[in-house]
Amino acid sequence: MSDFPRTLKFATVWLLLGAALFLGVQWWQSEAKRTRFTLQDGVVELRRGPDGHYHWPGRIGDREVDFLVDTGATSSALPAALARQLDLTEVGRVRTQTAGGEVIGTLVLADVALDGGVRVQRLRMAALPGLGDRPLLGMDVLGRLHWQQRQGVLRIELNAR
Fold it and tell me: Which residues contact 37 (CB under 8 A, 6 or more apart)?
């Protein structure tokens, strides 16, 4: 190692430290994501994420997605780009009011499966431009479930009727 120039030694040490830091942050993020969703005895618990929202992992068709739980939304929505990627069946146009104002989008049908066993076939979802990168899970799905929110935890009882 004494044959290496001094700057190469420093660069190697900094690269190793950077790689260790990167791997540590990746591990921490995966642990945080894993513990935000739990399923036990027919009860799903979603813990508020670092962004202040609840996230419910699931699928639209065969694509894994991270739904943003939106108790203030009447219906579920997804980004228009994602709807095109998934080649979802269009059934009409929709005009909706969002936090950013009125938006015109496409009404699509999607098969939704949420982790924990909640499934909705042919759910009518608004495919909206400018929605961001996550689909929204609205009251059209949440209203069918028994849930309560307390101290940063959204608790959904899957077997309650």
Answer: 44, 45, 46, 47, 55, 56, 57, 115
List residues bridging with 55 in a β-sheet. Answer: 68
Q: Mind listing the pLDDT tens digit for each residue in 76-95?
A: 999 999 999 999 999 999 98
Lowest mean pLDDT among 21-35, 54-68, 134-148: 21-35
Distance CA 161, CA 120 (A): 16
The end-to-end CA distance of the chain, in Å, is 69
Tell me which CATH code domain 37-157 carries: 2.40.70.10
Helix (H, G, I), strand (E, B) or coil at 102: strand
Q: Spell out the domain ranges in the chain.
A: 37-157
- The CA distance from 121 to 106, in Å, is 18
Q: What is the pTM of this model?
A: 0.75
Count the residues in the chain. Answer: 161
